[in-house]
Amino acid sequence: MAVIILIIITALFFPGIILRIKSIASGRKGPGVLQPMKEIAILFRKGSVFGDTSGIIFRISPAISLSAVVCAMMVLPFGNLKAVISFEGDFIFFSYILALGKFFSIIGALDTGSSFEGMGANRETFFSMLIEPAFFILLATFAMFTGHTSFSDIFAGFHISSDHFILIYSILAVYIIIQIAVVENSRVPVDDPKTHLELTMIHEVMILDNSGFDKALIHIGSYLKFAVFGTLLYNVVVPAGINTILQIALFFSIQFVFALTIGLVESFRARNKMNKNPKFILTISAVAWIAFVLILIMTNKLT
Amino acid sequence: MFKSLSAADLNQAIVLLSAITGLILTGGLAVFCFTKAFGIVFLGQPRSEKASFAHEADTIMILPELITIIFILLIGLASPLFVRPVIDMAAAAFNLTDSVPASATSLISLSHISILSGIFVVIVTLLLVYRYFHLQRRIVTTGSVWGCGYTASSPKQQYTATSYAYNYNHLAKPLLGTQKIMEEMEEGEIFPGERDFKSFSEDVFRTRVIDIPVDRISGLLKKIAVMQTGEIRHYILYAFVFILLVLLLTFFNLI
User: Fold this and answer.
1) In terms of Cα–Cα distance, which of A170, A107, A216 is closest to B130?
2) How many domains does chain B have?
3) A126 contact residues in B (CB cutoff 8 A)
4) What ipTM score was computed for the predicted complex, to two decimals?
5) Among residues 269-298 of chain A, which lie with CB inside 8 Å of chain B?
6) CB distance A209 to A108 below 8 Å
7) CA distances, B154 to each of A57, A114, B150 (Å)
8) Do the domain assignments include residue B176?
């Protein structure tokens, strides 16, 4: 249960930290760290406007997407503390419950009958489809050298081995997880959440017609998802079994560094051209394959 | 599959990871395909006049589908209830008592998935119930969907199945060979007239893997068909030539 509380606390500050970093990097005073939460509170207080062509799917999809992220949180461990529910192959559940949430957000967008939202839905599905192999190749490699197939067991056994390949693989894993998080959360360089032209949007254009309560749920889901990927990063970087206080401190530090990275990338890098995105995403899968071969070499399977 | 990776040798590991990558891509394609099929067919505005008259069938006609859907959902949400009897029956029928403990691990995983699915359903229900009461206290209105300032949108402006799959088709073009049939616009054509646009892709496996060998075999069979004269004496001659051939081959120890 501790991991869920920690993820929720992280999600409260994560988007605000990105905003602060971006404003500092661009020389602006900028909003406070809790500004995104204030915006969510405003959305909760507002009424809702629905498109006259949208139906029940549009109305229920934000709740389903958020629930999917909450369920995904339940299979994540925190250091040596097991996940709320842990079982063999739970990372497959993790990936597919997030895919279910995405499925509903996509068909919710298509339900509006707007050409803009159809365009966003198409891009989001396509890029999610391309990034999926990278995540599973990464997890397959974890499973290969730990001999386990659940998040809790993988990360508990991740640092037990004193082999140097763990360190090298951790660096690659951190890179791959950050890139997956960027694609899954539709951030720069794949997407730009602050773009103002619908034709260049991916995720934002999908939720153009959402308002009030539903939009708040979508934002909460998105912030939680960031913290979920940050938790994966934490588990890769920090060995299980150290002092709990230190673990909590390291957890928040890693989440902060993760938000800092996202903020700095968004401050100093332009987004990709839309037609470059597939290549960019496939490259992440290629890096995951290279990491896998690297592990084969280091574990003397490739001799 | 993931479990076997740790004990796999090099070749097995590469085969397993390739299989995993293939399966994952299939999963991704399934999401792509179902969002496209469901979204284009059932969501948005009716895309034709005929479609605008579409309405749901009577309850009695939907009932069989509902029963099927209930079972599909139950198999997904409470899978151990359905999988356990199947394992027991298979073990009893094929004398596989040794493999039953191994399948118990899968059942444990399935039970956990069922618990998580239950939690998922509960969270969705709670959120939707809260949403209902929350919106009761707020102003809820309807309006036209976002059209970047253009509010007179028509069903024709919706995404089509082809446009939805455009990105994917673009990536898979070398494999699918997608072709477009359209009349190009002239340079001075300021107000274009009505045009048709068609796009299609070949079934690569049918055209390259099945059609080519089948065409060659049927071409060969057509040549052989000259022997099909309909004259009984010719058929007796074929049998005689065949026996003679067998005798000769046996004589020279070739068969």
Assistant:
1) A216
2) 3
3) 32, 167-168
4) 0.94
5) 275, 278, 285, 289, 292, 296
6) no
7) 21, 9, 10
8) no
d(CA A162, CA A294): 17
Contacts of B153 in chain A (CB under 8 A): 113-115
Q: Is the dihedral of CA B119, B121, B124, B126 positive or negative?
A: negative
Q: For residue B203, what pLDDT is reported?
A: 81
Token pair recorded at residue B65: 């589908």
Upper half-sphere CA count for residue A39 (Cβ side, 13 Å)? 19
Per-residue pLDDT at B178 exceeds 90: no
Residues B35 and B96 in one domain: no
B108 contacts in A (CB within 8 Å)?
87-88
Residue B125 lies in a domain: yes
- The DSSP bridge pattern shows strands B197-200 and B179-182 to be antiparallel
Q: Is B135 found in the same domain as B62?
A: yes
CB A170 within 8 A of CB A237: yes
Residue B103: which domain range? 58-139
Are A74 and A83 spatial neighbours (Cβ–Cβ below 8 Å)? yes
- Same-domain check for residues B116 and B76: yes
Tally the C-alpha atoms within 13 A of residue A256's C-alpha that lie toward its C-beta: 7
CB-based contact A121 B115, cutoff 8 Å: no
The number of C-alpha atoms within 13 Å of A3 and in the hemisphere containing its C-beta is 27
Beta bridge partners of B140: A48
Report whether A26 contacts A5 (CB < 8 A): no
Q: What is the pLDDT of residue A25?
A: 95
Give pLDDT tens digits for A134-144. Answer: 999 999 988 88
Q: Is B142 helix (H, G, I), strand (E, B) or coil?
A: strand
Lowest mean pLDDT, pick from A27-36, A82-91, B81-90, B115-124:
B81-90
In a domain, B239, yes or no: yes
Distance (Å) of CA B121 to CA A69, A70, B58: 13, 12, 28
Kindly state whether residue B87 falls inside one of the protein's structural domains: yes
Q: Please confirm whether the linkage preceding B101 is cis (ω < 30° from 0).
A: no
Q: Cα-atom radius of gyration of chain A, to the nearest Å?
A: 19
What is the token pair recorded at B51? 């479609």
Q: Kindly state the tokens that stand for B169.
A: 């088709």
Q: Tell whether pTM > 0.90.
A: no
**Residue B148 Ramachandran class (φ > 0 left, ψ -120 to 50 alpha, else beta):** left
